[in-house]
Design goal:
Layout: H1 6-16, E1 27-30, E2 48-51, E3 60-63, E4 69-74, E5 80-87, H2 101-108, H3 121-140, H4 144-164, H5 169-176, E6 180-186, E7 191-198, H6 202-214, H7 221-236, H8 239-251, H9 256-259, H10 266-269, H11 274-284, E8 290-296, H12 300-311, E9 334-340, E10 345-353, H13 358-370, H14 377-384, E11 390-397, E12 401-409, H15 416-432, H16 438-454, H17 458-470, H18 475-486, H19 490-500, E13 505-512, H20 538-545, H21 558-561, E14 563-566, E15 572-577, E16 583-590, H22 600-607, H23 617-627, E17 629-635, E18 640-647, H24 651-663, H25 669-686, H26 690-704, H27 716-721, H28 724-733, E19 740-745, H29 749-759, E20 784-789, E21 794-805, H30 811-832, E22 838-844, E23 852-862, H31 866-878, H32 884-900, H33 906-917, H34 925-932, H35 937-947, E24 954-959, H36 966-970, E25 974-977, H37 980-984
Parallel strand pairs: 4-8, 9-13, 15-19, 20-24, 20-25
Antiparallel strand pairs: 1-2, 2-3, 3-4, 5-7, 5-8, 6-7, 10-12, 10-13, 11-12, 14-15, 16-18, 16-19, 17-18, 21-23, 21-24, 22-23
Helix pairs in contact: 1-17, 2-11, 3-4, 5-32, 6-12, 13-19, 15-19, 16-23, 22-28, 30-31, 30-32, 30-34, 30-35, 32-34
């Protein structure tokens, strides 16, 4: 499970605020008086529901007799339903002496009930009661020797209790029925449980969730607690998380937003209380404090009757009260410092009002005026002019308060104070009204477009319901926010900015260095518990025996689903029609990239800083933003994508502007010099990012050796020698090479072809793309351990094995193997042995024909668990456990998933692009679906023996050198330390 950061939670919610609607009262209606065949009683019941005028989701909001809210939207992009079960209970509701409780309870809700996940509840309950009592004793004991003795008892009794449990049964069920995205997140105001289910599994899912939320059993407690410890350690290794915590603590010295964190303190994590968890569950997990939000292929009447049938018996309870602490004004800047290995930056944060206040909406406008990725003041004045390496701003609305934050990364030789001053200058311009008033309307228009895009996905539609429920915002108010947003004036912006943004901010300097206060959650002694893979509870057997009407898969027929045409100069056009809204996606694709010309990526990056013969760079961005369009140029090793996206009604204008950028970029020496300086600084910063080091630099080294696609870059001397006109010539040459055009939008073919033939500027003869430099993948002849030193609490490692080149014949068994092993690895390394929070293993197929497949396995754990973690992963790769129940689940999951997934919209075009790279002319999922049921474990075992077991490995390890046991590493091969210059090439 994960807990969601404020920014990611509200990206969608922010976009939702801008669909144009009228602010009118709710309408109350009732469903048709029909019965459903699934109902046990024939008595008809009328269900009243609320709607909102001009609602783009056409949602119905029901309230059951017990207070449970149900939000429904029918959007049939596939025979699937996105579901969220939301609880108005987050970390702000944690007891002050038991922080992290809401988050830990979230983990426990996945452990089953008194029927699901148990072989013998009566016997298991006896042991669970003992464990609960021991934890209370452990919590009250201060003497460390006595605590260790008690924990030994806990570990012993837990082993006994686990013999009666069936680990991971809930996840097995969801996997078998074809669910996706089974997870949850906890944040300050909420805990939300997520599932994306096939529509034919609706009743089974509703019944399962009603059982799960009506009867929580905290089993397999101490190993899951250890997983939470590892999650805590991951946060301690994240400089970004540390900065956010410092900001919240300073902004909210009284409110729980700042006084306690979602994951909790180390002290509280080390002293958990099952009793307190149960109290919290009984207090907050009640129907009148919860909501079910669903969007997808649903029948309103049938769905609400099923929810009432299974959830209606939950008893209404007194609603838990929460009184928000009132914060005192901040009188002067609060300055903080955070040390860590990542690159330095500076953040400025302000306290803002809660989401339901109008001022919060104005602050959302201010956030967009400053930074929208195209034409905000920070975009144009700082990022495009390269006055900083990178900068941004965003608002995070919450229930009781919100935050507004600006962050900037310095250029080489630039101080953090200089970056701070530049950010504050942009905010000062907002306060003084020094911005074009037309930018407000442009923000409104672009967010309407973002909303249209967002509502093409059921996950975003359902998440809008969660926002409405959690923040107690009536749906009609939620839907009417766009009109309110559009009514914001320049004077409103200035007034609110001056009201909230004075010298009342928190200033955090994130500097590179060793954190003197670095801590970690210590590893307790844990005996692996039984996971009982071959056992099934009676509940599970009965659940899986229920028959449902199967759904039939729909595969792409590239010839039927893609319209192919020709543009002038015989340029291929591949087209899929957008029948839903007025948005377009246009791509020019060239089969050449930085492997063909190492300066191509540099030229593509240079383009965004250039103007044309008619417009400055700033004017260009404003023009695109005003049109509700955006352009981008992206280069990879073997391809260039030139894209135009936005409103199709402005297609011709956008295309002309877009083409003028490619045809007439104006060379700018200062822009190039600044860009080169920025590239050099960004390169140094990348060497401080552990994710880049492990997953890009070390992975490429393992696959290709010392000279590889990742570190083949222009040297500093070469970068500085590049001339502006040289890059401009490369930009101009992009449309002169052979390429193809992809279009997803509402136009008819003839109209589209005519518009492109008129607007797309190409020479009379297109040039063939130059030859690509191909990097040879090295053969792994002997096991090798590659190690990179990095100051961190955890250690992270990847096991990499090179396999055979891509062949479609093994794809079905590969898909089944990955489905099967995903559950096995999770069960063994996390649930049984408590070695990691995050771990996985998969056989990855190549993206291009004639390239190798790779087996990749990952585990992140405390450094002192390294030997156990490596041994555990290696054992699973060597001797794949046979678990018949898991195998049957994997088969069912594969078929159910494929039968209900639909590749639509622009996804059809890009699926075809992927297929062509592999030499395929049909949807490979057909082979997987047809083979899933007939494949045997022996076939999968044969695959494992041939392609997985005993294959030479490169083991990649990143961690603090003084914390790792190198004698253990040497057991797995010759240890070779890689320095950053070798990995990065500079």
């Amino acid at each position: 499970m994960t807990f969601k950061k404020g920014l990611s939670l509200f990206l969608v919610a922010s976009a939702f605020a801008f669909t144009q609607c009228k602010n009118e009262a709710y309408q109350t209606q009732s469903t048709a008086e029909t019965t459903t065949s699934t109902a046990s009683a024939t008595a008809e019941k009328e269900y009243k529901y609320e709607t909102a005028p001009n609602d783009p989701l056409n949602a119905r909001i029901y309230t059951l007799d017990n207070g449970l809210k149900v939000y429904l939207s029918d959007y049939e992009e596939a025979p699937r339903i996105q579901t969220f079960i939301a609880v108005r209970a987050g970390s702000k509701n944690d007891p002050a002496d038991a922080t992290g409780l809401a988050h830990y309870l979230e983990h426990m809700v996945f452990k089953g009930t008194s029927e699901l996940g148990t072989q013998n509840w009566e016997k298991e309950k006896v042991e669970l009661d003992k464990i609960e009592a021991l934890y209370e004793k452990y919590r009250a004991t201060k003497d460390e020797a006595a605590r260790k003795r008690i924990y030994t008892q806990i570990d012993s009794v837990s082993g006994v209790a686990a013999t009666y449990a069936v680990a991971n049964e809930y996840d097995k069920i969801l996997g078998a029925i074809g669910a996706k995205g089974t997870n949850a997140y906890t944040w300050v105001d909420q805990t939300v449980y997520t599932n994306d289910i096939p529509s034919n599994q609706l009743e089974r899912w509703i019944e399962l969730e009603a059982d799960r939320f009506g009867d929580m059993v905290p089993r397999i407690f101490h190993t899951e607690l250890e997983a939470v410890y590892e999650e805590k350690n991951r946060t301690l290794d994240s400089d970004g998380r540390k900065v956010a915590e410092v900001i919240n603590t300073a902004l909210f010295p009284t409110h729980q937003y700042g006084t306690q964190t979602t994951i909790g303190t180390i002290e509280h994590l080390k002293n958990p209380s099952i009793t307190e968890i149960k109290k919290y569950y009984n207090k907050y997990y009640i129907p009148n404090n919860m909501a079910i939000a669903m969007s997808g292929d649903i029948d309103f009447d049938q769905t609400i009757r099923l929810i009432d049938k299974y959830w209606g018996s939950m008893e209404k309870q007194p609603e838990p009260a929460f009184t928000a602490a009132k914060e005192q004004p901040i009188q002067k800047p609060i300055v903080k410092e955070v040390l860590g290995p990542d690159a330095e930056n500076v953040s400025i944060a302000f306290r803002t009002p809660g989401i339901n206040e109008r001022d919060a909406l104005v602050i959302q406008m201010i956030s967009n005026l400053l930074y929208n990725g195209q034409a905000g003041l920070i975009d144009l004045n700082l990022n495009q002019q390269q006055k900083v390496l990178q900068s941004y701003a965003y608002d995070t609305p919450m229930k009781d308060y919100g935050t507004f934050r600006m962050t900037g990364m310095p250029r080489q030789g630039q101080t953090l104070d200089q970056v701070r001053d530049l950010l504050l200058q942009q905010l000062d311009m907002i306060k003084k009204g020094q911005f074009d008033e037309s930018l407000i309307q442009a923000v409104v228009n672009n967010d309407k477009i973002n909303t249209m895009k967002a509502y093409e996905e059921n996950s975003n539609r359902a998440d809008a319901f969660v926002t409405s429920f959690i923040y107690e915002m009536p749906w009609n108010k939620f839907v009417s926010r766009p009109a309110e947003f559009a009514s914001i004036t320049k004077q409103d912006v200035m007034d609110v900015a001056n009201k909230y943004f004075q010298n009342n901010y928190v200033l955090v300097y994130k500097k590179t260095g060793k954190d003197p206060n670095a801590t970690k959650v210590e590893k307790p002694t844990i005996t692996p518990v039984a996971v009982n893979r071959e056992v099934q509870s009676d509940y599970y057997k009965a659940f899986m025996a229920k028959e449902v009407q199967p759904l039939q898969p729909v595969f792409i027929d590239y010839k039927k689903d893609i319209t192919e045409s020709k543009l002038k100069q015989n340029i291929p056009l591949l087209y899929t029609k957008n029948k839903e809204n007025g948005l377009l996606q246009l791509y020019y694709i060239l089969d050449m990239g930085t492997n063909n010309d190492p300066k191509l990526g540099m030229a593509v990056n240079y383009l965004k800083y250039l103007g044309t013969d008619k417009y400055t760079a700033e004017q260009l961005q404003k023009e695109f933003y005003q049109l509700g369009t955006s352009f981008d140029v992206f280069s990879s090793g073997d391809q260039v994508y030139v894209s135009l996206t936005g409103l199709d009604e402005n297609f011709e204008k956008g295309l002309n502007l877009f083409e003028s950028v490619l045809a007439n970029p104006k060379a700018d020496q200062k822009a190039l010099s600044d860009m080169v300086a920025g590239m050099l600084k960004a390169r140094e910063d990348a060497k401080k990012n552990k994710g880049v080091i492990l997953q890009q630099a070390m992975m490429n080294y393992a696959k290709y050796g010392p000279k590889n696609p990742f570190n083949t870059v222009l040297s500093e001397k070469e970068l500085k020698a590049v001339k502006p006109q040289e890059l401009v010539n490369i930009i101009k040459s992009i449309p002169t090479y052979e390429h193809r055009v992809l279009y997803y939008g509402p136009r008819e073919t003839d109209n589209l072809v005519a518009a492109l033939n008129t607007g797309h500027n190409v020479p009379a003869t297109l040039k063939p793309v130059p030859a690509e430099k191909v990097y040879k993948e090295i053969d792994f002849t002997q096991p090798t351990v590659y190690f990179t030193d990095y100051n961190m609490v955890q250690a992270e490692m990847m096991f990499v094995s090179k396999s055979v080149p891509y062949t479609k014949d093994i794809i079905p068994v590969v898909r089944l193997y990955n489905e099967y092993m995903g559950g096995i690895v999770f069960q063994d390394l996390r649930e049984s042995k408590a070695l990691a929070y995050s771990t996985y293993s998969y056989y990855g197929t190549a993206a291009k024909k004639d390239r190798a497949n790779y087996l990749v396995s990952y585990i992140g754990a405390q450094a002192d668990k390294l030997s156990e973690a490596m041994a555990g992963m290696q054992a699973l790769l060597t001797d794949m456990p046979l678990a018949d129940a898991n195998f049957q689940n994997a088969q069912a999951a594969l078929r159910n998933s494929i039968s209900t997934e639909r590749i639509t919209k622009s996804g059809i075009l890009f699926d075809y692009e992927r297929a062509k790279k592999l030499g395929l002319n049909y949807d490979i999922r057909q082979d997987v679906y047809q083979s899933a049921n007939s494949m045997t474990f022996d076939q999968m075992k044969e695959f494992q023996q041939k392609y997985v077991k005993g294959q030479p490995q490169a083991i990649l390890v990143i961690g603090a050198k003084d914390k790792l046991n190198f004698k253990e590493l040497e057991k797995y091969g010759k240890v070779k330390q890689l320095d950053l210059k070798t990995l990065f090439g500079y």
